[in-house]
Dihydroorotate dehydrogenase B (NAD(+)), electron transfer subunit (Lacrimispora amygdalina), 258 residues
Amino acid sequence: MGKIKITAAVASQTRLADGVYSMWIDAKEITDQAKPGQFISVYTGDSSKLLPRPISICETNRDKGLLRIVYRIAGGGTEEFSRYKTGDPITVMGPLGNGFPLEAGTSGKKALLIGGGIGIPPMLELAKNLSCTKQMVLGYRDELFLNEEFLPYGDTFPATESGTAGTRGNVMDAIREHGLRSDVIFACGPTPMLKSLKAYALENHIECYLSLEEKMACGIGACLACVCKSSDRDEHSMVHNKRVCKDGPVFKAEEVEF
Protein backbone atom coordinates (compact mmCIF):
# COMPACT_ATOMS: atom_id res chain seq x y z
CA MET A 1 0.00 0.00 0.00
CA GLY A 2 2.89 2.39 0.71
CA LYS A 3 3.08 5.64 2.61
CA ILE A 4 -0.07 7.58 3.42
CA LYS A 5 -0.79 10.98 4.92
CA ILE A 6 -3.62 11.19 7.42
CA THR A 7 -4.98 13.37 10.18
CA ALA A 8 -4.88 11.03 13.15
CA ALA A 9 -5.62 11.55 16.84
CA VAL A 10 -3.37 11.58 19.87
CA ALA A 11 -4.26 8.60 22.06
CA SER A 12 -2.06 9.61 24.99
CA GLN A 13 1.14 11.46 25.85
CA THR A 14 3.53 11.31 28.81
CA ARG A 15 6.83 12.91 29.76
CA LEU A 16 9.63 10.35 30.14
CA ALA A 17 12.58 12.59 31.02
CA ASP A 18 13.68 16.19 30.75
CA GLY A 19 12.54 17.25 27.28
CA VAL A 20 11.68 13.67 26.22
CA TYR A 21 8.08 12.69 25.50
CA SER A 22 6.20 9.53 24.57
CA MET A 23 3.13 9.84 22.36
CA TRP A 24 0.74 7.13 21.22
CA ILE A 25 -1.11 7.95 17.99
CA ASP A 26 -4.31 6.34 16.70
CA ALA A 27 -3.20 5.66 13.13
CA LYS A 28 -4.26 2.15 12.14
CA GLU A 29 -3.57 2.67 8.44
CA ILE A 30 0.11 3.34 9.17
CA THR A 31 0.45 0.91 12.08
CA ASP A 32 -0.71 -2.02 9.95
CA GLN A 33 2.22 -1.48 7.57
CA ALA A 34 4.98 -0.26 9.89
CA LYS A 35 8.22 -2.23 10.29
CA PRO A 36 10.96 -1.85 12.93
CA GLY A 37 13.32 0.95 11.96
CA GLN A 38 10.86 2.96 9.87
CA PHE A 39 9.73 6.49 10.74
CA ILE A 40 6.85 8.90 10.26
CA SER A 41 6.75 12.57 9.32
CA VAL A 42 4.78 14.67 11.80
CA TYR A 43 3.34 18.00 10.68
CA THR A 44 2.92 21.01 12.96
CA GLY A 45 -0.23 23.11 13.11
CA ASP A 46 1.83 26.26 12.38
CA SER A 47 1.51 27.27 8.73
CA SER A 48 4.87 29.04 8.92
CA LYS A 49 6.57 25.69 9.53
CA LEU A 50 6.15 23.97 6.19
CA LEU A 51 8.37 20.95 6.70
CA PRO A 52 7.33 17.96 8.81
CA ARG A 53 9.47 16.53 11.60
CA PRO A 54 10.80 12.99 10.98
CA ILE A 55 10.40 10.83 14.10
CA SER A 56 11.22 7.12 14.44
CA ILE A 57 8.50 4.65 15.25
CA CYS A 58 9.22 3.41 18.77
CA GLU A 59 6.49 0.80 19.09
CA THR A 60 3.28 -0.43 17.51
CA ASN A 61 0.11 -2.02 18.86
CA ARG A 62 -1.59 -3.60 15.85
CA ASP A 63 -4.55 -4.88 17.85
CA LYS A 64 -5.49 -1.32 18.83
CA GLY A 65 -4.19 0.37 15.68
CA LEU A 66 -1.75 2.52 17.67
CA LEU A 67 1.81 3.58 17.03
CA ARG A 68 4.20 5.20 19.48
CA ILE A 69 6.81 7.87 18.99
CA VAL A 70 9.35 8.96 21.59
CA TYR A 71 11.01 12.27 20.80
CA ARG A 72 13.12 15.01 22.34
CA ILE A 73 12.16 18.69 22.14
CA ALA A 74 14.65 20.18 19.68
CA GLY A 75 12.81 23.26 18.41
CA GLY A 76 9.45 24.92 17.90
CA GLY A 77 7.85 21.98 16.12
CA THR A 78 8.61 19.32 18.70
CA GLU A 79 7.81 21.80 21.48
CA GLU A 80 4.35 22.15 19.93
CA PHE A 81 3.94 18.35 19.86
CA SER A 82 4.78 18.16 23.57
CA ARG A 83 1.68 20.23 24.36
CA TYR A 84 -0.72 17.87 22.57
CA LYS A 85 -3.37 16.16 24.68
CA THR A 86 -5.50 13.05 24.24
CA GLY A 87 -7.92 13.52 21.37
CA ASP A 88 -5.99 16.32 19.66
CA PRO A 89 -5.64 15.97 15.87
CA ILE A 90 -2.18 15.31 14.49
CA THR A 91 -1.21 15.06 10.83
CA VAL A 92 1.31 12.35 10.00
CA MET A 93 2.70 10.57 6.94
CA GLY A 94 4.17 7.10 6.89
CA PRO A 95 5.46 4.56 7.24
CA LEU A 96 8.62 5.95 5.64
CA GLY A 97 12.06 4.58 4.85
CA ASN A 98 13.50 1.09 5.02
CA GLY A 99 13.61 -0.70 8.34
CA PHE A 100 15.92 -3.25 9.91
CA PRO A 101 16.19 -6.67 8.19
CA LEU A 102 14.58 -9.06 10.66
CA GLU A 103 15.98 -12.04 8.76
CA ALA A 104 19.47 -11.01 9.90
CA GLY A 105 18.47 -11.77 13.50
CA THR A 106 16.98 -15.22 13.14
CA SER A 107 16.67 -17.77 15.93
CA GLY A 108 20.01 -19.21 16.99
CA LYS A 109 21.93 -15.97 16.53
CA LYS A 110 23.02 -13.51 19.18
CA ALA A 111 22.35 -9.84 18.43
CA LEU A 112 23.54 -6.55 19.88
CA LEU A 113 20.90 -3.81 19.75
CA ILE A 114 22.58 -0.49 20.34
CA GLY A 115 20.83 2.85 20.76
CA GLY A 116 22.28 6.23 21.54
CA GLY A 117 20.17 9.12 22.84
CA ILE A 118 17.06 9.59 20.74
CA GLY A 119 18.27 6.64 18.66
CA ILE A 120 17.12 4.39 21.51
CA PRO A 121 13.32 4.44 20.78
CA PRO A 122 13.33 2.56 17.43
CA MET A 123 15.32 -0.26 19.01
CA LEU A 124 12.36 -1.16 21.22
CA GLU A 125 10.15 -2.23 18.31
CA LEU A 126 13.11 -4.15 16.89
CA ALA A 127 13.66 -5.93 20.21
CA LYS A 128 10.01 -7.01 20.21
CA ASN A 129 10.23 -8.47 16.71
CA LEU A 130 13.58 -10.28 16.60
CA SER A 131 13.48 -13.99 17.41
CA CYS A 132 17.15 -14.32 18.36
CA THR A 133 18.98 -13.78 21.65
CA LYS A 134 19.19 -10.03 22.28
CA GLN A 135 21.55 -7.82 24.26
CA MET A 136 20.61 -4.14 24.46
CA VAL A 137 23.23 -1.44 24.99
CA LEU A 138 21.68 1.98 25.58
CA GLY A 139 23.71 5.17 25.66
CA TYR A 140 22.64 8.35 27.48
CA ARG A 141 24.13 11.66 28.53
CA ASP A 142 22.76 11.29 32.07
CA GLU A 143 18.99 10.72 32.58
CA LEU A 144 17.66 7.30 31.58
CA PHE A 145 14.44 6.69 29.66
CA LEU A 146 12.83 3.57 28.14
CA ASN A 147 15.56 1.34 29.62
CA GLU A 148 13.15 -0.67 31.77
CA GLU A 149 10.93 -1.36 28.78
CA PHE A 150 13.75 -3.34 27.14
CA LEU A 151 14.16 -5.72 30.08
CA PRO A 152 11.54 -8.29 28.95
CA TYR A 153 13.46 -8.84 25.72
CA GLY A 154 16.98 -9.54 26.97
CA ASP A 155 19.92 -8.32 28.99
CA THR A 156 20.12 -4.52 29.03
CA PHE A 157 23.27 -2.50 29.60
CA PRO A 158 22.97 1.29 30.05
CA ALA A 159 25.89 3.66 29.65
CA THR A 160 25.90 7.29 30.74
CA GLU A 161 28.45 9.98 29.94
CA SER A 162 27.97 11.38 33.45
CA GLY A 163 28.34 8.01 35.16
CA THR A 164 24.95 8.36 36.88
CA ALA A 165 23.89 4.85 35.79
CA GLY A 166 25.51 1.80 34.27
CA THR A 167 28.87 2.11 32.57
CA ARG A 168 30.53 5.52 32.73
CA GLY A 169 31.17 6.46 29.12
CA ASN A 170 29.61 5.48 25.79
CA VAL A 171 28.15 2.34 24.26
CA MET A 172 31.56 1.06 23.15
CA ASP A 173 32.77 1.36 26.74
CA ALA A 174 29.78 -0.74 27.87
CA ILE A 175 30.44 -3.38 25.22
CA ARG A 176 34.05 -3.72 26.36
CA GLU A 177 33.23 -3.59 30.08
CA HIS A 178 30.77 -6.46 29.85
CA GLY A 179 32.68 -8.44 27.22
CA LEU A 180 29.66 -8.56 24.93
CA ARG A 181 29.83 -10.69 21.78
CA SER A 182 27.36 -11.07 18.94
CA ASP A 183 26.75 -12.42 15.45
CA VAL A 184 24.98 -9.27 14.28
CA ILE A 185 24.72 -5.63 15.32
CA PHE A 186 21.73 -3.32 14.90
CA ALA A 187 22.28 0.32 15.88
CA CYS A 188 20.73 3.78 15.79
CA GLY A 189 22.23 6.96 17.14
CA PRO A 190 24.53 9.91 16.48
CA THR A 191 27.13 9.71 13.72
CA PRO A 192 30.23 9.40 15.98
CA MET A 193 28.64 6.37 17.66
CA LEU A 194 27.76 4.74 14.34
CA LYS A 195 31.22 5.43 12.96
CA SER A 196 32.86 3.65 15.89
CA LEU A 197 30.45 0.73 15.65
CA LYS A 198 31.16 0.32 11.94
CA ALA A 199 34.89 0.15 12.64
CA TYR A 200 34.31 -2.31 15.49
CA ALA A 201 32.07 -4.53 13.34
CA LEU A 202 34.49 -4.59 10.40
CA GLU A 203 37.45 -5.32 12.66
CA ASN A 204 35.62 -8.23 14.28
CA HIS A 205 33.86 -9.47 11.12
CA ILE A 206 30.38 -8.88 12.54
CA GLU A 207 27.35 -8.29 10.33
CA CYS A 208 26.18 -4.75 11.11
CA TYR A 209 23.18 -2.56 10.27
CA LEU A 210 23.13 1.16 11.05
CA SER A 211 20.16 3.52 11.21
CA LEU A 212 21.42 7.00 10.41
CA GLU A 213 20.23 10.17 12.08
CA GLU A 214 20.05 13.03 9.58
CA LYS A 215 18.17 16.29 9.12
CA MET A 216 15.41 15.72 6.58
CA ALA A 217 13.13 17.95 4.53
CA CYS A 218 10.65 16.11 2.31
CA GLY A 219 11.06 12.67 3.91
CA ILE A 220 10.37 10.86 0.62
CA GLY A 221 13.66 11.15 -1.26
CA ALA A 222 12.80 13.97 -3.66
CA CYS A 223 14.81 16.90 -2.32
CA LEU A 224 18.24 15.32 -1.67
CA ALA A 225 18.59 17.26 1.59
CA CYS A 226 19.55 14.21 3.65
CA VAL A 227 22.17 12.46 1.56
CA CYS A 228 25.06 10.53 3.07
CA LYS A 229 28.24 9.28 1.43
CA SER A 230 28.02 5.75 0.10
CA SER A 231 30.39 3.15 -1.28
CA ASP A 232 28.33 2.70 -4.44
CA ARG A 233 26.60 5.13 -6.81
CA ASP A 234 23.02 6.25 -6.25
CA GLU A 235 20.85 5.66 -9.33
CA HIS A 236 18.81 8.80 -8.62
CA SER A 237 21.62 11.36 -8.31
CA MET A 238 24.34 9.38 -10.17
CA VAL A 239 26.93 10.21 -7.50
CA HIS A 240 28.29 8.32 -4.51
CA ASN A 241 25.58 9.09 -2.01
CA LYS A 242 22.39 7.66 -0.56
CA ARG A 243 19.17 9.36 0.48
CA VAL A 244 18.78 8.64 4.19
CA CYS A 245 15.00 9.08 4.15
CA LYS A 246 14.29 6.79 1.19
CA ASP A 247 17.28 4.46 0.74
CA GLY A 248 17.64 4.26 4.54
CA PRO A 249 17.52 5.18 7.28
CA VAL A 250 18.87 1.64 7.80
CA PHE A 251 21.97 0.66 5.84
CA LYS A 252 24.40 -2.20 6.00
CA ALA A 253 27.56 -0.76 7.57
CA GLU A 254 29.65 -1.32 4.43
CA GLU A 255 27.23 0.78 2.36
CA VAL A 256 27.91 4.10 4.06
CA GLU A 257 31.03 6.22 4.52
CA PHE A 258 31.60 8.55 7.46
Notes: The longest strand covers residues 4-17. The radius of gyration is 18 Å.
